[in-house]
Amino acid sequence: MTQLRDAHLLVVGATGGLGSAICRRLVDEGSRLTLAGRSETKLAALASELGEAVVATISADLSNPAGPVAVAAAAAEDGGIDGVIYAAGVVAFGPLGELDDDTFDELLLLNFVAPVRLLRSLLPQLKPGAVVVHLSAVVAEKPMKGMAAYSASKSALTGFSAAMGAELRRQKIRVLDVRPPHTQTGLHTRPISGVPPQLGRGLDADIVAGRIVEAIAADEADLPASAFA
Ligand SMILES: NC(=O)c1ccc[n+]([C@@H]2O[C@H](COP(=O)([O-])OP(=O)(O)OC[C@H]3O[C@@H](n4cnc5c(N)ncnc54)[C@H](OP(=O)(O)O)[C@@H]3O)[C@@H](O)[C@H]2O)c1
């Protein structure tokens, strides 16, 4: 079992629908959190809600190389971390012919490049027994038409997680790839480009967050979409 009480965890994308639900669950378990997000206002509101459990907050744009470095530096200030949950991300919709370069770049930067850069910067700070959690998505298992670039960005993250799991095992660092189905956070109503398809009702964000925190505590090695059924 991974001890969550008094563990210091970095949550990136803490201000998002899933990120904030994960933060609340972790605080219920007694964890101490460093919160990373883009909006300072949202970070301040979340920190105020979570109270003394918050070690630090860091606002950074993860789409440029300095962002992950700044987040890792903030997490270092308390003498290393017991884990990181990467829950930042963006989505876009539409056929390939309508995919513009800025959208493609941002999808890859947020969903794949930033977590790679972040983990590279965090390596010296991860204590033995630490856990690295990546929020990929069901589309890494079942890529969808009209979401090709998003699906590919998540497949890349899932592939990276698998390789890192093997690479970091000797250092006793566990990498947990999480591939949730559609969840009611409003993400699909905020695409960086394109028009959302009819997705139907998604899973409850608190239930998804609860399952993720359960997997962290229970030392699970993989959390496929079927784990949320
Ligand atoms: N919701 C779903 O159906 C679903 C299903 C499977 C997987 N996922 C994945 O789960 C993750 C979280 O999704 P969500 O539904 O919680 O989305 P969300 O509510 O939109 O949250 C996204 C988070 O990413 C942050 N972010 C976006 N652009 C950023 C940037 N340039 N720099 C720094 N931070 C940035 C946002 O910060 P601000 O709040 O400051 O903007 C926010 O904290 C994503 O990777 C998503 O692909 C979601």
TrEMBL record:
Domain Ketoreductase: 7-182
InterPro entries: KR_dom (IPR057326), NAD(P)-bd_dom_sf (IPR036291), Sc_DH/Rdtase_CS (IPR020904), SDR_fam (IPR002347)
Example GO molecular function: oxidoreductase activity
Keyword Magnesium: no
DNA damage is among the record's keywords: no
Key words of the record: Oxidoreductase
One Pfam family, short name: adh_short
Coiled-coil positions: none
Family per similarity comment: Belongs to the short-chain dehydrogenases/reductases (SDR) family.
Protein name: SDR family NAD(P)-dependent oxidoreductase
